[in-house]
Amino acid sequence: MNGKIRNIVLFVSAVSMLFSCAGEPKATPNKDKAEEMFQRVWELYRVPKYGLFSEYYPGSHRPDLTYFNDSTRQAQEVSYLWPMSGVFSSAVLMAAIEPEKYTVYVDSMVMAMEHYYDTTRVPFGYQAYPVQFGKVDRYYDDNGLVGIDYIDSYLVTKNPHYLEKAKQVLTFILSGWDENFEGAVSWLEGVKDQKPACSNGKAMVLALKLYEATKDNYYLEVGKKFYHWIDKYLKDPERGVVWNSWLTTTSAVCPDLYTYNTGTLLQAAVALYNYTGEQAYLDNAKFLAEGSYKVFFKYTEEGIPYIADLPWFNLVLFRGYHDLYNVTGDPKYVDTMIKGLDYAWDHARDQAGLMYHDWTGRTDEKRRPKWLLDASCVPEYYARVAMIKGEVKTEK
């Protein structure tokens, strides 16, 4: 009898444990971090008066900004377009992993972006600062970012308005195309001194995503034109990285290296392999991944990997690594980036919970104002890590 009772007790305990485990929610540490940082950005940077965001936190910090063609400009009450795009991109990724909760944020960012939409010049396009505050330059790379955010928004929500906006952006960028040096566009409207990887790389990614959404061969061919131009004029054929720009006034390359330029060509190579099945594209993607890995990654004395570039620039490279991982299953490149990211989470954040610009934490940035672009890219990093680690599934 005692044996029977013991067996019954063991059976009941086993069943109880089974149901207890089945009822426990799946651990999603990276998704949780993405959500935490996303909300932090919206709480700390949002300027409700305009429905826009401040360039820095705290908003009273308004330094000179150096990312313009003609001169430095002081930060204003709301952000310039480039950092805003980081908020838009993160909203789209959050909506991809939890549409019921985050699609409303995508809609909000669409409304915010339209503050930058200039209809006084033809073709219409997005300028660097909200039109209500005056007329400023329109950069092709800025527009490429907006276009990518719109087409990604369409791929997540299937809202046809977002698809049309993405098409309009590409039309604006292509208005800057000329056949000098076999094609490509300049950095900004009306200034023809260079043909940079930033403008052409973003246009390339936008065109290929439009092909993914529409299956219209026109966009595939446009994407290929940008791809082959960058591959010919701006790729370092020995190291597997992408130079900054082609200088049209001197017929020479500007060899500066920024991670995001290699990242966009890597994204495009993977996309073209997926669309065409041609091995040459996958071979180039692997070449770019390994090249960027060798050129850009450094290590601290403790063995922590880092890249001495803007966190957002590195995010674009991470997008390329993520796309390649989805094809090959090789975690080498994504895992290295994730190791540095996780170290920064634990060792390089301030009192407000915002990440440092220097992810190694070797610079004390606890009381230093934080740039919107440095903060707004973090939710996308962790959303992608959640995808890579299998914490979330997306329909796309």
TrEMBL record:
Which SUPFAM superfamilies does the entry mention? Six-hairpin glycosidases
Q: Which UniProt keywords apply?
A: Hydrolase, Signal
- Name-wise, this protein is Glycosyl hydrolase family 76
Q: Where is the signal peptide?
A: 1-22
Statement: the UniProt record of this protein carries the keyword Signal: yes
Domain of life of the native organism: Bacteria
Q: Which GO terms describe its molecular function?
A: hydrolase activity
